[in-house]
Amino acid sequence: MQRITPDQAHPLFDTAATRRQEQAMAAALPPHTLMQRAGRAVAQLAQAIAPHARTVWIACGPGNNGGDGLEAATHLARSDRQVIITWLGSPETLPDDARKSWEKARNTAHTTWSDTPPEHLTPQDLCIDALLGIGVRASTPPAPAPNTAGSVLAQWLAQLHTCRAPVLAVDVPSGLDADTGQYAHGLEAAAGAGLTGGAGARYTLSLLTLKPGLFTAHGRDAAGQVWLDDLSAPPHPHTPHSRVQENREPPTAWLAGPPARAQRHHASHKGSYGDVAIVGGEGLAQRGMGMTGAALLAASAALHAGAGRVLVSLLDPAETAEISTQPELMLRRFEALELEALTVVCGCGGGQAVRGVLPAVLQRAGTLVLDADALNALSAEGSLQQVLKARAARQHTTVLTPHPLEAARLLHTHTAQVQAHRLAAAQQLARQFQCVVVLKGSGTVIASPQGTPTINPTGNARLATAGTGDVLAGMIGAYLAQGMPPEQAAMAAVFVHGQAADQWPEQMPLTAGTLAQRLA
């Protein structure tokens, strides 16, 4: 068993891949072995989380997830705790493994079976969520247990998510789609009730595999601190070890680890680390809305992330006063930029003015990051999209950095649809435009046309402030200028960007300008 932290990469497997691995392991082991291991693992983590708990409430559902909870109840009851079991199942419809665990739990001392959750749990006690497992899909509500009103499930979920005691979810938090990180239809309010504060700490023990939905969309809030137990053990004496291992398959996605630290040689100079050009910053004179700050934030980030030189081409040449605060930045008129020799970051604060320069940028820039208003211009112009697609055939590097609304515009769909399938949306964009895509949000997704997508584990809600996306675009530009491959540059920038927020001093407000400067 291990706690999942951002210090290394981890493979992620969706529900279908997890089911295949589960079936392969079950076929190679004696009956009921996997559920026994799962229940033992849940009990071990429960005792580590709440070593002084006198009462443990285990909410069990009608399937195998509930069976894992019942198996855990047997172990926890032996440690002289009061174990209260609420169960939505029926003996007649139980899967075979869950039935065996139910029979053991029924015959175990120190367990109390109840129709209602316990009242007055303290912060030292513990709740275990074993109601719903990985079979839940966000698009359809879970079927209620036989002879049980669906409202009971919602009530128990709401109580789990608002109680003061810590909550340990078995495999996935109940109601969460393990593939997408979205809540099942009809359970959004109940499952997310504890996110408003006042509830106990959240823990999730993912069994057999790590699931993508734990790390993106609502998954990070719902899952809390994630642990993994792969349920491995020496194979059965009569089972060749190869039978347990032969069904390993490639991951659905990866959870990113920290990037390798770049080394700078003594015998180097500013030309060794590339030139970044920031093209953006529509001025007041054009639409009465000054957005030069976005371009300057991207430029500051590129500078502090290690670019050798940073050129700034503001789309309103009259807006030059603010740049005096960062004298290292070099002003250039757009016409004077040698786009073919530069890493161009285009769109930050570009407004409508970026449409005038975007065709030349797409045609000429050898390495390009498109953000913000450049993406909005692309979504409205089919001819520009064709030019973007043609860049890959000319061996030109492109990285797109949309937030969900910008991604929805590019895909001609709605933001909710993008958020409902973040991995799929990022992969669709990457294939459609033949470039690397950074779909921003909780659990930012990095996708390339042929590769396995990556979910970033760092970052927090402090980044939900104006300008932090511009900072990220500038960082990606700096890493590209220093010679990183595009997917690696995107992953490294997203990781470091989020890590800076995770390490931010608690008492200090996070602003984009300060974030850019702290990258060094």
Describe what you observe in this structure.
The radius of gyration is 26 Å and the shape is elongated. It is built from 19 helices and 19 strands. It is α/β, with parallel strands linked by helices. Mean pLDDT is 90; it is low at 145-149 and 234-247. Helix 2 packs across helix 3 and helix 11 packs parallel to helix 13 (382-393). The strands form 2 sheets. It has an 11-stranded mixed sheet with strand order 2-10-19-18-17-16-15-14-11-12-13, sandwiched between helices. Helix content is 37%, strand content 15%.
SSE diagram, text form:
Blueprint: E1 2-3, E2 10-12, H1 15-27, H2 33-49, E3 55-60, H3 64-77, E4 82-87, H4 96-106, E5 111-114, E6 126-130, H5 150-162, E7 167-170, H6 188-191, E8 202-207, H7 219-223, E9 225-229, H8 241-245, E10 253-255, E11 275-280, H9 284-287, H10 292-304, E12 309-314, E13 330-331, E14 343-346, H11 358-364, E15 367-370, H12 373-380, H13 382-393, E16 397-400, H14 404-411, H15 415-420, H16 422-433, E17 436-439, E18 445-447, E19 454-455, H17 468-481, H18 486-502, H19 512-518
Helix pairs in contact: 2-3, 3-4, 10-17, 10-19, 11-13, 12-13, 12-14, 17-18, 17-19
